[in-house]
Amino acid sequence: MKLRFSILALLFVFIVGMVSAHEEREVGDYALHFGWRSEPALAGLLNGPEVFISPKGADEEAGLPDDVEVSLQVEITFGSESKTIALRQAWQEPGHFIADLIPTLPGDYSFRVFGTIGTAAIDETFTSTDGKFSSVEPSTDIMFPAAGATDVAALLARLDALEARIAKLEGK
Predict the structure, then answer these.
(1) Are 136 and 43 in contact (CB under 8 A)?
(2) 28 vs 18, higher pLDDT
(3) What pLDDT does residue 29 have?
(4) In angstroms, rounded to a whole number, what is the distance separating the alpha carbons of residues 149 and 128?
(5) CA-based angle 70:75:79, to the nearest 5?
(6) Among 31, 57, 126, 157, which residue has the least CB neighbours within 10 Å?
(7) 124 and 155 share a domain?
(8) Sheet with 22-27: strands ordered across
(9) How many Cβ atoms are within 10 Å of 158's Cβ, its own excluded?
(10) How many percent of the chain have pLDDT more than 70?
């Protein structure tokens, strides 16, 4: 009995952890669950945004009916930079849409999902600063061996400092 309870408790914690890594929103007749494909998101590693779409009130696992056409893009913003990419349906997973992305810097990312689901126009913005899904973390914590492992953010900071020193020496 104790073993069953322990297994159920662990399963509950695991499922709640998975659900909390995505932000849920109702848009028109649909429920959207948005987040990173892999949590936590780590700088320099293949990842990308994903969205699960289901009819409002239906189980997320049910997906979408085959006759609902989906055409979505995602505009990704980090600082002052933006990039737009198309979301594509995950193979044999109706209602699950993904895009590939390698987030190169740690920090907060915003995602504007726009397009259509059936006849419904979609234009929703999700951001990691809200805490519903993770900000991108440095990958150096999991790199091994440490020798030769380089943090891109640290290199960029060093380059900025060197450029400032050069500008100062040149009298600019």
Answers:
(1) yes
(2) 28
(3) 86
(4) 26
(5) 160
(6) 57
(7) no
(8) 22-27, 30-36, 49-55, 96-98, 88-89
(9) 10
(10) 81
- Retrieve residue 79's tokens: 């600082």
Q: For residue 63, give its domain range.
A: 2-137
Per-residue tokens: 99? 């895009």
Domain count, the chain: 2
Residue 9 phi/psi, 5-degree rounding, is: -65, -45
DSSP assignment letter at 65 = -
Taking every pair of Cα atoms in the chain, the longest distance, rounded to a whole number of angstroms, is: 76
Q: Which residue has the tokens 């150096």?
A: 140
Predicted TM-score (pTM) above 0.85: no
131 and 50, same domain (yes or no): yes
Convert the pLDDT of each residue in 159-168 to its tens digit: 888 998 998 8
Residues 52 and 85 in one domain: yes
* Token pair in block for residue 66: 């085959």
In this predicted structure, the answer to whether residue 19 has a pLDDT above a threshold of 50 is no
Which pair of tokens denotes residue 115? 């397009």
Provide the residue type at 5 as one letter: F
Give the model confidence (pLDDT) of 148-160 as tens digits: 556 666 778 888 8
pLDDT of residue 151: 67
Residue 78 identity:
F
Q: Which two tokens stand for residue 169?
A: 């020496």
Residue carrying structure tokens 């519903």: 132
**Predicted pLDDT at 7:** 46
Within this chain, do residues 129 and 146 fall inside the same structural domain, yes or no? no
